[in-house]
Amino acid sequence: MVVSVTRAAHVAQSPSPPSSKRVCYSDSVKKTYQPAPAVGEVIALAYDRFVATLLRTLPFSLAAVLLGQWPSVYLLQGGESLQLLAPKSPGWWVAMLLSSLGTLWCWLVIAQRQWRAQSLSSDVLAATRVMPQALSVLLMSAVLVGLGSLLLVIPGIYLLIALWPALAVLLAEGSSARTSIDRALLLVRGAWWQSLSVLVVIIVLVLGFFVLGALAGFALSGWLPMSVVTAVLAAFFQPFVTAAGWAQYQTLLARQASSSASNSL
């Protein structure tokens, strides 16, 4: 009996032989992550994709701009107030719903034309098929951000940035809405500040684009209405925003693959 106990203690103290399977450690063991990609790298990648796909995405971007103006046109034709808090008729709500769905569909087609570059019919069908899942991702993200903001402001802000790649995950990987959200949170882990920086740079670029457009509109006011200049600018910046989402997803995906390779060593 003594020999058996001694032998069992010796086996328990001796190191286990190496295994070919990956060992799952507890949460107390911290995983190492590669540094987040540089913001300039993401913007440069987005610009290259934007320029390369502008011609095949611009018609759908123009359609999205026109659809976005539909609710305002409805109010003007009906003589209703354009103020945001003014009561709206049921017809306006229908126009707003159809406008939002149509704009989202155009964005999905733009993303398909930028990321997959298949035939026009294939991209249109793919965007139409993924429409319900895209709506689910947006609604679930809005609910999570809203709950985080109600509980505490900081969780809402964190989720607002962390869930940005969720739609890109859905389009690129064809996963469900729930899986896309979980995957986005995993990709942004350790790169939240970098994601925030990329969004800030995009917003600054878009605002600067509109400032230049406003100056051009004043200069061309004798030939073109300001609304036309604004619509054209909006049609140009929308493909850039979707290209930036694709670029951020690609860089986060490469970072995750590099981190996984480092942790497996």
How would you describe this structure in keywords?
single chain, 265 residues, mainly alpha, globular, disordered N terminus
How would you characterize this protein structure?
The chain is mainly alpha-helical and 265 residues long. It has one domain. The protein has eleven helices and no strands. The protein has helices at 2-13, 39-68, 70-78, 90-115, 120-129, 131-151, 153-162, 166-173, 177-188, 192-219, 226-264. Helix 8 crosses helix 9. The chain is globular, with a radius of gyration of 25 Å.
Backbone CA Rg: 25 Å
Measured as a percent range, the helix fraction is: over 70%
Beta fraction:
under 5%
How would you sum up the major sheet?
A: none
**Total strands:** 0
Distance N to C terminus: 42 Å
Secondary-structure element pattern, one letter each: HHHHHHHHHHH
Q: How many helix segments? A: 11
Note poorly predicted spans: 1-29
Total domain units: 1
Described by the principal axes of the CA atoms, the overall outline is globular
